[in-house]
Amino acid sequence: MKARVLTAAFAACLASGALPAEDAAKNYLPDFHGYLRSGLGATSGGGDQSCFQSNGADSKYRLGNECETYMEIVLGKSLWEQNGQSFYIDTRIAYKSGQQNDWEEDPGDGSGSNSDAISGDRAVAAHPYRDSVVSLREANAQFRGVIPGQKRSNLWAGKRFYQRHDIHMADFYYWDISGPGVGLEYWTLGPGDLSVAWIRNTDGAWANGLGTDFWATDGIRPNVVNNVVSLRYANLKTNKDGSLELGAEWGGADLTNGQRNYLFVNADDEVYQRGFDNQNGWMFTAEHTQGNWFGSGYNKFAAQYANGSMAATGNNDTHSHSFSNVNRMWRVIDHGVLVFNSRIAMMYATWYESKKSIDGGTKDWFSIGIRPQYNWTDTMNTTLEVGYDNVAFGHDWAGYIPDPTQPDYIANCAERNSHCVLTKVTLAQQWQAGPSIWARPVLRLFVTYADWNQGNYPQTPGIIPIRDTTGTTFGAQVEAWW
Amino acid sequence: MPRSLTVTALALALVTVAGCAGSGKTTWVAPLESRSPMYTAVSPSAAASLETLSAVRVCCDTLSALHYQPLNTGDSEFFKLDANSQAFTFATGKSLLQAFVIPDELERATLTIEAIAGATVFVPTVLILDRDFRVSRAIDSSNFKYTPAGFMEPQRLRGKVYLDRRQGGELAAEKYLIVFTTDKDLRGSTRMMSEARLYARAHGLVDPGLPDPIAQHAATGVFRMGVGDLEVSAASTTQYVRQQQGASRYVPPTSAVAPAPRPSRPVVQSSPRAAKAGAPPMLKETQTMYDRMIQQSVALGDMDRAWRLVQEAERAGSTTARTTFVGAVENK
Lengths: 482, 332
Prior knowledge:
The complex is a heterodimer of chains A (about 475) and B (about 325). Chain A has about 475 residues and is mostly beta strands. Chain A has helices at about 1-15, 115-120, 255-260; strands spanning about 30-45, 70-80, 85-95, 130-145, 155-160, 165, 170-175, 180-190, 190-205, 225-240, 240-255, 265, 270-275, 280-295, 295-305, 325-340, 345-355, 360-375, 380-395, 420-430, 440-450, 470-480. Chain A is globular. Chains A and B meet through helix 1, strand 1 and strand 14 of A and helix 1, helix 2, helix 6, helix 10 and helix 11 of B.
């Protein structure tokens, strides 16, 4: 009798699903994700490929307009799973090189190259064999399903790309506070999902005008820590395929005692400032997403406002900075994808951004671009990308001031009451792993033509003569993600 | 004139390129999503696929009359289920099918079957027949799980079929393989992952918050089959037994009959009822071996394994497994 009861109890336990899945064949391979782009190009008139980005613009339209090799290797793995909960480990290592040589090493001491040198100044400054960098971008653990019954709820810590929002065709990350951090995300509360996070980024001594020799002066170490506390409330349903996300982020510097009391002295040994810059500020974001927009396309509309330390936002950076010359920023963005039929699809984006500096200068950036694609077959298409940037500078904007005494002096467009304009057009023939505008890998042959106003210097320095206002490049590029 | 010539030549070149891609089996590329023109030509919609199905005549009354193509043990291959496919009326409904004969030298293998998903998807069920065209095993559709597009792979329903003819008995006699679908599966749909979401995963972006596409289950479609080594983690005997148990329900009783049915030669009994109905009793050594394994598993606290051993042993004719288990649990 006792035996029968025991068996029955055990059978009940079996039926309740307490056992691991029957076919839990162990899979020791990690999830492999990643991204890469590479290729080569040339500029009509001679030399390496020049890339076109307007002065004052934080991004450029990317098709046939990328001059470097970039790759990310993502390895992740669910290490433990039980009752709808799991522990996931995620890592991401990024590599970037000038795409100039077979052998491109990372000099390792920060002397030969950095990210900027590879993208922008390499024709002037970067060593051809030492123009590569490696960056550890993600290393985190995620406890998924941390709130019982909420599969998407996630407690995480470590370095992480945190809920980044981007415009693919411009490679423009307009809401991105990524960095080392900790948080709880997608906690369903009421009609939406709440995410809370504390994320860190750090300024070097240059933020306080102490130059880039941050390793030379003991007094100013360590670097200035900037914290962001992020609150986001997402997935608020507005219609059948529409949803709203709201965000409020506070950022501020967290100075050490030494930094608070540091005395800045001038050449006459007079103290002109006591303590490091110590700004703080807010950023507010609202974004509406509409799915099933023209076929399987979508539209995203975003509005952002930031002040103080959060206003110095650029591409890939909505962090806080201990000193920000810009103390007010707002922008509205609309972007998406239209799918007209099986042959024709189009990406589009437009935005307007207004920044105001501490001393009253203004910078207003308008951008609009389209990328239509026509599929000749499942695997071959012709793609056009047209992008236009117009950056207007109000009085006293700290632009890039050229030296009028130089013989080749041209008034810089990034000066007061002037504006920088750039239009680029790219035609590409693409061989692609499927007809979707998102299908990758893609191999493309492209021709890019750009036109800008005098004094914009948008191209990689030195390749195109400084007085020219047009340029043509051509080349081949591959892009893949998986 | 030269200019118009150039234009004509260019147009011709484009038409040629457009015309030759996508035609024929060898140039076929797995579509990564639903709007692939090639893929919709195979399965424009679930409704159209049903029309195709009803237009195809049932080839025959018995499985033995089907045409079986040799299984390619080399490269993985794509197979279409369309108006040119064979059709057969299974107990679970009429279905288009692809039938294969397993080469004798292929003793052990893992067959990976991936039905490509787009606007529609063909949900596979696999039947394995013995040399006399009697159903040996069925790998039902729940074994084919949705797999999002991965590293250069399309989205698909993916499942594995293990062959292990060295185990002897019924498994050794396995000779034919049929891929088809059932009426029940035809009524369903599969939720997929949007490409925008895949892009977000690769780039570490916020989830795009867009609706996922749905693949309607269709009577036509495309699947890829590859043959690899038998995996270490391949099916256990339990799994083979379960696949044997459920197999008969897919085929009408008369249709699989071979001219002269022979007595079966089971290594693992195909039904627990068979044991009770007086099938040959288990070897004494085997029974003892099961009992010992059950006791060990309980001692180690692995109740799951112990219980599965009980079930397996009973199916194979053990009369002591359950009492051994209960005894072991009580003494623990």
